[in-house]
Design a protein that fits this description.
about 325 residues; 2 helices; single chain; three-stranded antiparallel β-sheet; mainly beta
């Protein structure tokens, strides 16, 4: 099938002993990446009525299934990280389906109300493990996209990007998280100023190439006035409010990051901050969704971070 699994993660580097040794320099690095393959946005059919509705509701949806294209991770105020298709429409999973083995139990009127996401030219979202993407053969012989084994769907009553009208319908339909589980807002990480990162991984951007993102797919940045040895953050007060620190991350939750001197900085303000190659790292409040790079080059001092911890200075 056409699912692209290798476009967002680099190879995992060997873990280096966490000893207080001198860290690398601050020379800039970064290669431009090729753009991920774009797929036409899926069509959406608004629906009226309740339950599965009549055949007039989302007519033809079952036979007009579209691939998800370049998947994305959206941030929902109530649900946290939610997986969407290339047009920003929420993807759902059905409790009556099974993941092991993958099987869809939504056919007929059900599939008209809940159009399947066809397995096709689908690409994992930034910050998502591409290996989670798969496919299942449906009873009609068509192929449906799966995430961690779960078949995924759209909802005919979601009429615009960001709608989550299918959440909790019938006690069996739930928005899908990037790991294939039911979307649920995570509790704030300790010392993270309300931010729940949970992981670090590598994404590819057509402009920046490979760069580090947090567990929500949000771009991670470095501040040029900071120092790596001794590890010192020069971003304090109002600066931290705009550039939240990345809280400590378990090394087991990192993918593609070169774990050289992967240490935690005890800040003067009491927060604990993750470092990569001893450089303190941050996210940016001006980035509103996964994949945004609005912080790149701000003030000539803020830049995205390569997997080895170096600055990516492309503009």
């Amino acid at each position: 099938m056409g699912i692209k699994r290798g476009t967002t993660l680099a190879a995992v580097a060997a873990v280096v002993a966490l000893t207080a040794t001198a860290c690398g320099g601050s020379d800039p690095a970064g290669d431009n990446a090729k753009p991920a393959g774009a797929v036409a946005a899926p069509s959406q059919a608004p629906s009226s009525g309740d339950g599965y509705g009549s055949e007039a509701d989302a007519a033809g949806a079952a036979g007009d299934a579209k691939p998800g294209g370049q998947l994305a991770i959206a941030q929902d105020e109530k649900l946290g990280s939610v997986l969407t298709d290339s047009a920003g429409f929420t993807l759902y999973r059905f409790d009556k389906d099974t993941a092991k083995p993958s099987k869809s139990n939504c056919d007929g009127d059900c599939a008209r109300t809940w159009p399947v996401v066809a397995a096709g030219d689908d690409t994992a979202a930034a910050g998502m493990d591409p290996a989670l993407l798969g496919e299942v053969v449906r009873t009609d012989g068509s192929k449906q996209l799966t995430v961690a084994g779960w078949p995924v769907y759209r909802f005919s009553k979601d009429t615009k990007a960001g709608d989550t009208n299918g959440q909790g319908v019938g006690g069996t339909w739930f928005a899908a998280a990037p790991d294939g589980k039911k979307a649920a807002k995570a509790a704030p990480a300790p010392g993270g100023a309300g931010q729940a990162s949970g992981a670090l991984t590598v994404a590819k951007d057509p402009k920046l190439g490979e760069h580090i993102v947090d567990g929500n797919g949000m771009t991670v940045y470095r501040f040029k006035p900071d120092t790596a040895w001794p590890m010192v953050s020069k971003c304090e007060g109002a600066c931290v409010a705009k550039w939240p620190v990345v809280p400590p991350v378990d090394q087991a939750n990192t993918k593609g990051i070169i774990e050289k001197n992967y240490l935690v900085l005890d800040r003067p303000d009491g927060k604990k901050q993750q470092t990569v190659n001893c450089w303190p790292v941050y996210t940016f409040t001006g980035d509103k969704k996964a994949g945004d790079i609005n912080g790149q080059g701000v003030g000539g001092t803020w830049y995205a971070v390569a997997p080895d911890g170096k600055l990516i200075t492309v503009q």
